[in-house]
Design brief:
The protein has 276 residues and is mainly beta. The chain is 10% helix and 46% strand.
């Protein structure tokens, strides 16, 4: 089965320099995809002899939006109790919504990658720091422990990153009390809304590591190598008819409904954004 290539964002609060000066490179072994800047085998990663040729794309832009909405109808129930059980009119609708939009623009994006063999991984995990980590009680006595091998990097130059957030609360409806004996309804009708907006951005000319992809290494009775994308930012693969193309854990594409697809030249296929 051909799995979708999935990328995780590097922390942008502290930009990671590209290899060889930076802390990570192809072949780095990390404990968590949220902290790639702390590899266990820094300075001792096994050399890669079969890396894919670098792919360079210019004027790369991507906009990622995430929107959430939540509605409540509990106010009518509360009013009914407060009014001694009298029937209420139509429920009050309370809706909370939030939208976050991030735009990433880069002068150049360079994609590096390789596909590790079992022999490569077996040699890579012999790094002293990796063996020390595996021998710690928490890992030693656990049925299964896991680490992650970095198999792909996206290096960017000339970054322009912009973000905006918007939060809205809206209340509308009839909160009147129906009194059947009188044939009338008491209480107000109307609507109210409030919105908070925020925006900002940053620029960076020098090159840094924007995103990375990994293989999951599972240590149990034997070493297993697999795909991993939980909490990923982007996935590159074949677009499905229903545009559900993001894989989770060891499941290939088409299982999550949280992303829209656009074409990415570096991968020659569609890109799916996966909200964290």
């Amino acid at each position: 089965m051909s799995f979708t290539k999935t990328y995780f964002l590097c922390p942008t609060s502290d930009f990671i320099h590209p290899p060889p000066e930076g802390p990570i490179c192809l072949g780095s072994i990390i404990r968590s995809t949220s902290t790639p800047q702390y590899p266990l085998n820094r300075g001792s990663a096994v050399a890669i002899v079969d890396a894919s040729p670098p792919i360079v794309e210019t004027d790369w832009t991507k906009t990622v939006s995430k929107e959430k909405g939540l509605g409540f109808g509990i106010y009518a129930q509360f009013l009914q109790l407060a009014s001694g059980g009298l029937a209420l009119g139509p429920e009050m609708d309370v809706e909370h919504s939030s939208k976050t939009t991030n735009t990433f623009a880069f002068d150049t994006v360079t994609t590096l990658g390789f596909e590790p063999t079992l022999e490569y991984v077996e040699e890579a995990v012999q790094a002293p720091a990796v063996q020390t980590w595996l021998s710690e009680p928490r890992q030693k006595f656990a049925p299964v422990s896991e680490l992650f091998l970095i198999t792909g990097l996206k290096l960017v130059k000339g970054a322009k990153i912009a973000y905006s957030t918007s939060q809205t609360t809206a209340i509308k409806g009839n909160i009147g009390i129906d009194v059947a004996a009188l044939g009338t309804t008491f209480g107000p009708k109307g609507n109210w809304s409030h919105t908070n907006d925020d925006a900002g951005g940053s620029n960076r000319e020098s090159e840094f590591v924007f995103a990375f992809r990994v293989k999951r290494l599972r240590f149990g009775r034997r070493l297993k190598i697999g795909e991993y994308s939980k909490g990923a930012f982007m996935a590159f693969g074949d677009k499905k008819d229903d545009d559900e193309g993001v894989m989770v854990e060891d499941v290939n594409g088409a299982d999550i409904k949280t992303a829209k697809a656009i074409l990415d030249v570096t991968e020659n296929s569609n890109v799916y954004c996966v909200p964290p």
